Structures are given as structure tokens and as C-alpha cells.
């Protein structure tokens, strides 16, 4: 017999997955739209001839990696994603990611041996200031208990323009009969589109034990002060006008000021 609490959690998980699927569909539509725009621009560029040759239409790689530019993909970029950053970390080392926010600092211990692609990507983005002056756009307070951040758009649809592979999916143990595992309070994990290997820059901070499918790369652990800061944010609840009274933008606005990733 399934208890009322188990049923409530199951419904919350199913809702979470449906929302991820809707975001996937939105991203696909956006990519298709960008492909059409890119085709139109290609014709225009060919007609411009000399201007293109002179570099008037050359993309700025440095701008492409900033939070501001990735918030709205350049229409000259095709739907093909960029490759993930080249490996530039010590895959045997541990790293600390420090997220400075207007609501307190969160220090996250990361083990590169377990999640090398994830740690490498976060260091790459942090070094470029990708996360600076962005907002944590989503808080859930029922069924699952997470604060989601890392989207330069602040809508849940933004990312760095590339994806990274899933890692450490068995790190939290074997899934139970309901297909879920417990993401313990303090866990930091990658958000994705609901499909394998679609992580980008978005991540979530678990402030209370939450059951989810083992589909989200767990890559770090918050320190006690960081967990307390997220708990305090959650206590204020969700802002009105969200997806539901328990799922939406946090009422207490969370602004990420800077993110740094350093080798221990």
C-alpha cells in the first residue's frame, strides 16, 4: 500500500520531470528558430561579400562566453552546440567552488576524480565570469527541496552553448523500487533537460533530503554555512506568480555576485 506521503512525493517528482521536458521542447524550438535565422543571415552575408571578408561579421569568442551574450544566443550561431571546454584541471585533485551571493556565501567541495567534466566546465565558466550577476531562478518547497541557479537568462532555458556528459550517477546508491534515490541535504547536482548528457551551466542546491531519479550528476557538497544560507532562503518561500505556491522564483531574491573555482 502506497502511503499518502509517498504518493505526494511521487507526484512532485513527476511534475518536476514534466517541467524539464517542457524546457527541452522550448530549447528545441529555439534552436530551430535560430537555424532559420542563421540561414537568412548566411544569404545576407554572401550578398555583403567584401564586408564579410573584411571581418565585419566576425564573431567575438570572448563575448560569446560571457553571461550577457549567452543569455540570448547570437542569431549568427547555428543550432549545433559548441564543444565542451578542453580538460584543463587536475583530475585527481579536489576543488572548492565558492558562490558569493547577496544572501550569503556557499562553499562547495568538488571531487574531480568523480566528476572531471563537470568540475572542468565549472572552472572554465567561473574563470570567465559567466555566473557573475545572475539570479537563482527557481525554488521548490514541496516534494523536492532545491534552489536552482546557473542560468544567465534567469528563465530556466539558458546555458553556456555546450553540454557535458553525465557523471557519478551511481554516487548516491542504487535506485529503489520507485526508481529514485535520495539526494541528501547539502548535495549540489547538475540540472538537465530530462535527456541524458544534457547538462550545461544550471545546477541545484539541495537544502533538504529529496528523492529524484538518479539522472542528475551529483558533483559537490555544500559547507554548513552554505546549507544554512539556502535553508534561510527556502523559509521565505516562493514568490507569487510562480508555477505553483511551492515552485517558482524565490521570494527572497538570490543574486549570484561571483563564482570562483580553486584547487585545494
TrEMBL record:
Gene3D superfamilies: Cyclophilin-like. It holds the Pfam family Pro_isomerase. It comes from the Bacteria. Residues 104-261 form the PPIase cyclophilin-type domain. Residues 1-31, 62-86, 237-264 are annotated as: Disordered. SUPFAM superfamilies: Cyclophilin-like. Residues 20-31 have a biased composition (Basic residues). CDD domains: cyclophilin (cd00317). Keywords: Isomerase. One of its GO terms (molecular function) is peptidyl-prolyl cis-trans isomerase activity. Residues 66-80, 255-264 have a biased composition (Low complexity). Residues 1-17 have a biased composition (Basic and acidic residues). The keyword Isomerase applies. InterPro entries: Cyclophilin-like_dom_sf, Cyclophilin-type_PPIase_dom, Cyclophilin_A-like. PPIases accelerate the folding of proteins. It catalyzes the cis-trans isomerization of proline imidic peptide bonds in oligopeptides. This is Peptidylprolyl isomerase. It comes from Streptomyces monashensis.
